[in-house]
């Protein structure tokens, strides 16, 4: 599943490839992919120009002329490709934005879980998924004091609390395991038991890790590829995720795998002690 660094990589790719292109028409081959009226989706976008592509959490926000935004969530396997209109359609292509210049932006999704929704620009904040998102993991928006206070109010263990996106957005299963290892925090530690110093260390590592992953173009596990079909390079920097049995890079203890909140979880049993 693409996490924030992968979605950010897609956003940057789209900004390089489709900016200022004008849509001639839109083809939808799987109606359920569009939330709301499919005909209205097609009719509204015809003639519009892509002005920029933004992102909030793992939601891509394709901004069009006329104050129109398409909220696009890739879910498990969604991918965008830019191709000439003459290239044959892949059987997993479900939405095609045709541009007047003869190129197309194609949305592929082998599992069909991705969704697109057309809204008036600015109204994306009312989207049920976007509405509950915590701050973006940047120095400007993500503050230690707020983070610590939010953890104090959580009844969940830290791994689950970080995955729910309300305290800080953008951490999925891979990066949660990584930042907890970096911060020497056991994934089953109750969130409210973290000290201020632990919360600060975790906060700093979340910003550092996600930015490093973005710079590396994301992580390729299974099928993720960005809009250029390049593979992300961050899988080579992972310390614990899917490293079960391999030595911890700090203390050489074999990495263990447990299940936390139904998610496979990797940690070092020596560096990340569960305090009583
Ligand atoms: Zn260790």
UniProtKB/TrEMBL annotation:
Limits of the FPG-type domain: 239-273
Pfam families in alphabetical order: Fapy_DNA_glyco, H2TH, zf-FPG_IleRS
SUPFAM superfamilies: Glucocorticoid receptor-like (DNA-binding domain), N-terminal domain of MutM-like DNA repair proteins, S13-like H2TH domain
Keyword DNA damage on entry: yes
Gene3D superfamilies given in the database record: 1.10.8.50, MutM-like, N-terminal
EC number: 3.2.2.23, 4.2.99.18
Enzyme active site: 2 (schiff-base intermediate with dna), 3 (proton donor), 58 (proton donor), 263 (proton donor)
Swiss-Prot/TrEMBL keywords: DNA damage, DNA repair, DNA-binding, Glycosidase, Hydrolase, Lyase, Metal-binding, Multifunctional enzyme, Zinc, Zinc-finger
Annotated positions binding DNA: 92, 111, 154
A GO molecular-function descriptor: damaged DNA binding
Cofactor: Zn(2+)
Keyword match Metal-binding: yes
GO biological process terms, semicolon-separated: base-excision repair
Cofactor stoichiometry and binding remark: Binds 1 zinc ion per subunit.
Domain of life assignment: Bacteria
Subunit architecture: Monomer.
Family statement: Belongs to the FPG family.
PANTHER family noted in UniProt: FORMAMIDOPYRIMIDINE-DNA GLYCOSYLASE
HAMAP family in the record: Fapy_DNA_glycosyl
Protein name (database record): Formamidopyrimidine-DNA glycosylase
Gene of this entry: mutM
């Amino acid at each position: 599943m693409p996490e924030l660094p992968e979605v950010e990589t897609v956003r940057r790719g789209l900004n390089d490839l489709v900016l200022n292109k004008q849509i001639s028409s839109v083809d939808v081959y799987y109606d359920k992919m569009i939330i709301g009226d499919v005909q209205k989706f097609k009719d509204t976008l015809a003639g519009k120009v892509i002005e920029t592509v933004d992102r909030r959490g793992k939601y891509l926000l394709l901004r069009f002329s006329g104050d129109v935004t398409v909220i696009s969530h890739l879910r498990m396997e969604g991918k965008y490709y830019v191709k000439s209109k003459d290239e044959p359609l892949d059987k997993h292509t479900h939405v095609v934005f045709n541009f007047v210049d003869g190129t197309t932006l194609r949305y592929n999704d082998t599992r069909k879980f991705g969704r697109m929704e057309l809204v008036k620009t600015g109204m994306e904040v009312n989207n049920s998924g976007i509405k509950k998102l915590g701050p973006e993991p940047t120095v400007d928006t993500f503050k230690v004091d707020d983070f610590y206070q939010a953890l104090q109010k959580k009844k969940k263990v830290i791994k689950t609390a970080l995955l729910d996106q309300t305290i800080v957005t953008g951490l999925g299963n891979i990066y949660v395991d990584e930042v907890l290892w970096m911060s020497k925090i056991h994934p089953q530690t109750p969130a409210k038991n973290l000290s201020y110093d632990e919360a600060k260390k975790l906060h700093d590592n979340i910003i550092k890790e996600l930015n490093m992953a973005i710079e590396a173009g994301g992580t390729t596990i299974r099928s993720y590829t960005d809009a250029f079909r390049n593979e992300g390079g961050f899988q080579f920097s992972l310390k614990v995720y899917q490293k079960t049995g391999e030595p911890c890079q700090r203390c050489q203890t074999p990495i263990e795998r447990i299940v936390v909140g139904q998610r496979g979880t990797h940690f070092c049993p020596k560096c990340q002690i569960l305090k009583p």
